[in-house]
Amino acid sequence: MSATEIRRPASTDPLDGSTRAGERLELEISGMTCGSCAARVQRALSREPGVASALVNYATARATVTAEPGALDPPALIAAVTRAGYGAAPARPPAGESAGAFDALEASQAREQTALARRIAVAIPLAAAIAVLTLAAPHASTARWITGALAVPVQFWCGWPFLRSAWLRARSRGTNMDTLIALSTLASFLYSTVMLISQTHRYQHGVPVGQFEMSLDYDMAATIIAALLVARWCEARARARAGRAVRELARLGATQARLLDPQDPDAPERLVGVEQVRAGDVFLVRPGDKVPVDGVVIDGASAVDESMLTGESLPVEKRPGSPLTGATLNFDGVLRARATAVGADTALAQLVDLVERAQASKPQIQRLVDRVAAVFVPLVLLLAMGTLAGWLIGGQGLVGMFATMHLQRGLDATIAVLIVACPCALGLATPVAILAGTGRGATLGLLIRGAEILERSQDLDTIVLDKTGTVTTGRLTVADVWAAPAGGGPEQVLARAAAVESGSEHPVAAAVLAAARERGVAFAAAAEFRATPGRGVRGLVDGAPVWAGRPTHPTPEGAGVLADWEAAGRTAIVVERGETLLGAIALADTVKDEAREAIAGLRRMGLDVHLLTGDNERTARAVAEQVGIDHVLAEVSPEGKLEQIERLQRAGHRVGMVGDGVNDAAALARADLGIAMGTGAGVAIEAADISVLSGDLRGVPRALRLARETYTIVLENLAWAFGYNLVALPLAMTGLLSPALAAAAMGCSSITVVANSLRLQRFGRPGRPTPVRTRRRRTLSIGAGALAGGALLGVLVLAAPDTFAVPSSASHTFIATGGEQVQVGVTPLTAGEVGVHVYLFGATNATSIAGRVPISATSSRGQRVVGTVY
Length: 870
Hints:
By secondary structure, the chain is an alpha+beta fold. Helix 21 (617-627) links the parallel strand 24 and strand 25 (631-633). It starts with 23 loop residues before the first strand and ends with a strand.
């Protein structure tokens, strides 16, 4: 496996339902408009026979279904989504396999935004005209008919997406946020139309005398539709922007390749599409070319920019035998290479596919939100009906204009409840943050494999670092050779060590073999090779058993030399023939330049750092002292690494493990959070939760900060969404929030959640430090999110405190002897002021009447006036 290779789980063929492994299917879902839609689709898929789990992501419009072996039935799953009132189709090919699929996706998103923009261009001027006419001439017959005419295109063309979605949900006996929008705007439109056509609500004013008609609510419905269209357009743009990082990564791949004929070196190169390259083909990469597919260098030398994969800007030198990664950029030399992976098997394709899967996953807290969203819309409908009933019951003692006013205000409050409670912010709170965070991580060479990892990163208190390849470069070199009297000299010791190490792939073996070749030492491969993990290797050299590794018995003869090497931080292996010491070899492993800075960053995050190594205690402590680590776990076998992780966990620690080798895989999998250095073995990357593809140790604290920041923003968004709804619903039910402001507040809430999530796209940019948030600071930011939603609504209400307070009207009716009736009504206006209306019913020559009406008025500022009107 190449240094940058990422293995991808076997996938499902979505077209015929067959699976190669995993019984996993991804579907593109259309028609979803809020979190409750995603919850409904998820329930529909989960109920299908054989489905083990189903996850539906509203932000990515994708469903991931896992089924029991042999039970996956794509047509049945698509039919289940269709019955629920939505559309479904097999997901596009893996992102890295076809960048054209992303072009189609962006074209679809652009069409959606353009369609919304056209409706907005009509809705806003018409809604403004309707509002002006309604406020300027509320009782003028001509103006009323004009507003009614202007309201028709706003309601039925501009608002068509809401009406259509609500109808589709109703046909499938379901609801979503569009149900609330459609009900509220239609109620306002129909109420106003009835009032306009019937002409029955006409009243005789006391002073000045004249007739007037009750105001219409066309402006309310038009304003709501315009505001929600703007909010949905902003949301669509933000969702497209959040997923742009992964799409840009997928587009980095080359489109063409220069193929060579391996049988005819003189044949000219052929320029072909990259999709025509097959594994085993030989291709040429000229200076300035992108590497078309993954491969290995056959001939040539050059520097290659791998920043698209690792996030590191420094070029990497390539020589014969070096791995090449597709989409990397060749700088100055000509390389001839053989393709090892093409299409969906390239590192780029696998990277993008893994990031997409991470974006489709959900943390545990989102599952709770999904359950809330599933019942949220029906609950809001019940609250709306309760609100209307409460207002009607409260107005039973009123007659005439006051009863009608009470009905109108009750209808306004009901509409406000339907609008303000739309669960858009709840549905967007988690997925958009994960989309932005994992996408930003991919551009930085930090691969976060799933949303649940974000949760686990919050509680870590201990981080364990494997030494070789993690804290050190992992590129061992022979620093010294010492020969015992029985060894025959340094060259003979090195020859015997090289002979027995030739059967191993361990870094120690590579260093010994390289030193032997550089010094021209001849050796033959040992027979009967055996390796003891974490200890050493043995074999027969010239018929005698030779051991290279840790001493198998006390060696007082070379104790001083070994002690000096270990004190200098070098790793020593001994070479023994039988029980006779032949000599020893000192190996040097350079500490990474960035190691001290990275470990300081981990400690600033409040993490207790441990160094874990199979080396001896003195060497391990020398390295630990050099980089600033206090806790050392030395002479640990591969099995012992797992035991050390478990020991720390039994002591109550939440442990993160950082490693890069095959022998780290078990410990990475067992740790609460496994972090693999991406320059290491593929099995380690597969076992890890987070991969630092650059191999730069500073990527570890950076990845943890990104994971913690992403999860903190998820919690901030959810706190905002819940806090907003907890404040908004009581305000709307009591009539303190007008429907128009309810629509503005709902749209503002969704946009705020998305904007907060998009802050993650600036994470790690040059010149933008990423300070470490303490647990206290994170808690305060989450609390601020909960309060901010309520504060926004409070500002909106206080902006016009008397406009939206429902009058506590008092009325009294006097009946004269001739049957005439006089109705006296009192309505609070502003603090300390009331309006008195007198209405005469029956004969105009009513006899003198007398009486008194007690009144009380409380303004929205809390000022109370009590008095009596005679």
